[in-house]
Specification:
Layout: H1 2-39, E1 42-49, H2 53-71, E2 75-82, H3 84-92, E3 99-101, H4 105-113, E4 130-134, E5 136-141, E6 161-162, H5 170-184, H6 190-202, H7 211-219, E7 226-230, H8 231-239, E8 244-247, E9 251-253, E10 255-261, H9 263-269, H10 272-281, H11 285-293, H12 301-306, E11 316-318, H13 326-334, H14 339-348
Parallel strand pairs: 1-2, 1-3, 6-7, 9-11
Antiparallel strand pairs: 3-10, 4-10, 5-7, 5-8
Helix pairs in contact: 3-4, 5-6, 6-14
Length: 350
């Protein structure tokens, strides 16, 4: 009996040691897991339209630093910049964007229709998810030798115009709507708008893929007497030392650029938290100032008042909604065989 008692005590001790070792091992494993979780790298794929690149070259490193400080995680961005319409197709075709910043809401809606973004995305960020704003502008050669001051001057014989292709460029669609709205928002009818817009496009030399491509043709290759583009592109080009003049017409369109989290992809990547944090970060006063440094008009009301004198005032400012909203605009102007195609066909036949 004494031997059995000794054996029982021995076995109990061994069992206790095993249990303690197991508990100790679990604690070590949990600690390792916590360290691994806090230090593992995160990858975020960000897709935007071409002219925002200069802003994000400043903004993204600041957010990476902020995230590292607050979450002890290394964050790496994979960035892609191209025409807004092209980027929409790229995401549909497999570019696994976590966050998109596009030129117009129509492109985001296409990602809703294809199941990449959930309906109601406009309510997921401040300001109905409009993160940057601009207006249309006309660049001319230095000193404005052809005295181009208004949209109407673009119809004159002998004035060669550059604008991107609205089939691939969101900026080009805004340019088109600026011309059309200039007529309809000053008391004239749509027949007159069609005639006016056709006359402008008759003077268009080529239709490059993106707004940035159009700028390069104008500034780097010396093509055209006038360039239609975002006001922010004009400001950025001035900062880069380009020699030219530009005007912001008094009747103009509010160019509203949306941002959204790509729900389908963030769920697969496990990046929703950082994606949503990045979107919110873009609305902060310091980042709205960063956008304004390269020519975007702030969407933060406080910063807009603070920097109001940096931008020319527009007397008549209209929105895409005033022209029927993006779904109607697409069908009316930019679908196959719609008004833009009709203008191009008419131009080709002459």
């Amino acid at each position: 009996m004494r031997n059995w008692g000794f054996i029982s005590l021995f076995l109990a001790g061994v069992s206790l040691s095993i249990v303690m070792s197991a508990c100790s091992g679990a604690n070590v494993d949990n600690t390792v897991n916590r360290i691994a979780t806090s230090e593992r790298d995160l990858n975020l794929t960000f897709v935007s339209y071409s002219v925002t690149k200069a802003a994000y070259e400043r903004i993204i490193p600041q957010f990476v630093e902020k995230w590292k400080k607050e979450h002890n995680q290394n964050l790496k961005f994979t960035e892609s910049y191209d025409g807004s319409g092209s980027q929409t197709l790229n995401v549909i075709d497999g570019l696994e964007a976590d966050v998109i910043h596009l030129s117009l809401a129509l492109d985001v809606d296409k990602l809703v229709q294809t199941g990449f973004i959930q309906p109601g995305w406009e309510k997921e960020a401040p300001n109905n998810a409009i993160v940057t704003q601009s207006v249309g502008a006309i660049a001319t050669r230095e000193g404005n030798p052809k005295n181009i001051k208004t949209w109407t001057d673009l119809t004159r014989p002998g004035v060669s115009v550059l604008t991107a292709n609205p089939k691939t460029s969101g900026g080009a669609r805004w340019n088109f709507l600026s011309l059309w709205g200039y007529v309809t928002k000053t008391g004239q009818n749509e027949k007159q708008a069609l005639d006016f817009t056709s006359k402008v496009y008759k003077n268009v030399l080529v239709l490059p893929k993106t707004a940035r491509n159009a700028s390069e043709l104008f500034f780097k290759q010396g093509q055209g007497d006038a360039l239609l583009n975002y006001e922010n592109e004009m400001i950025l080009s001035k900062q880069k030392g380009e020699k030219f003049s530009y005007v912001v017409p008094d009747v103009n369109i509010s160019i509203d650029n949306p941002i959204a989290v790509v729900d389908k992809n963030v769920e697969q990547h496990g990046t929703r938290k950082v994606a949503e944090a990045f979107v919110q970060y873009l609305y902060t006063p310091e980042i709205q100032r960063e956008f304004s440094k390269i020519g975007f008009r702030p969407v933060n009301n406080t910063i807009a008042k603070e920097l109001g004198n940096n931008f020319p005032q527009v007397q008549t400012l209209f929105k895409a909604e005033d022209l029927g909203g993006w779904n109607n605009i697409q069908q009316k102007f930019f679908n196959e065989g719609a008004i833009f195609d009709q203008i191009q066909a008419q131009k080709a036949s002459k």
